[in-house]
Amino acid sequence: MKNSPVRCKMYFKNILVPLSGAANDCDTAALESAFNLASRFGAHVNALHIKIDPRTAAAFVGEGMTSTMIESVIDMAEKEGQDRRQRAHATFDKVTAALQVPLVTNMADRPNATGASARFVEMQGNSEDTIHSYGRLFDLIIICKQEGEEQISNSLLINTALRETGRPVLLLDSTQPHDMGKRVAFAWNGSVEASRALSYSLPFLQTAENVTLISAIDDLDEAIYPEAVQRYLAMYGVTADRCEISGTNGKSTAESIIAAATKSNADLLVMGAYTRSRLRRLFFGAVTEEILNNCPIPVFMAH
Fold first, then answer.
1. What CATH class is the domain 14-172?
2. Are 203 and 10 in contact (CB under 8 A)?
3. The pTM is what?
4. Phi, psi (5° rounding) for residue 46?
5. What's the CA angle centered on 158, arms 85 and 282, to 5 degrees?
6. What are 29-64's pLDDT values in tens digits?
7. CA–CA gap between residue 8 and residue 285 (Å, rounded)
8. What is the CATH number of domain 183-302?
């Protein structure tokens, strides 16, 4: 049953999409997904490309290298940076043109308050340091998961966005449709991070046709009050079905969450990120990393 249309005061109005400029389709997938959501929520999309200072490459060269060799490393880093910048900008231009998204730098000039708009932002510096501070100014950060030679830098970006910005992060690996989030699975374990994900994801939850509350009992010894979560959501016009998982079924917590989300036919998983201490992750496993690596649907996370 479709949830009743209660107007939500919190929408995704400012969306950040970091563009790596990598030679793959990830930037396109992230941008297209962002614009699909922006047209739905009337949001402005900031496409951010961070150009690494080529001089920092010199810090990674080995001892004994001549000045000529160091200059060569810097030149190579400069060329790679330019190539990435050109690819990122070209992708932005291509996607905005194809979707007819107006380019806006002054919010007062937005042609339509209910439609999407965009701008390309270029900064120079360390990717993690930039996201650390700049990312705090947005309602949602959208990142496409990357593999291969891009995986390490991509993982660092995701971790920084989750741990340091205080903002929710939507992680995906392909272009998502305008109506993504029709069937939402919410993994609740009673943590502070899960409660933040609950409030941040209300724009999705309120417009979903079906919401499944997955009570992740796991190794916790405290009460997590899933029925209170249902009452909370009901105040926002959201009716949530409920299922319970635990660590006694022979599966990891992450495997159980993914299985429950799959069973509910969810197209979006919402959960808190890094809800365990380092010691608990050592003994019981890292749920966040396992979800990121294995979940077949987009994941909306908050820390």
1. alpha beta
2. yes
3. 0.89
4. -100, 115
5. 150
6. 999 999 999 999 999 999 999 988 766 655 555 556
7. 36
8. 3.40.50.620
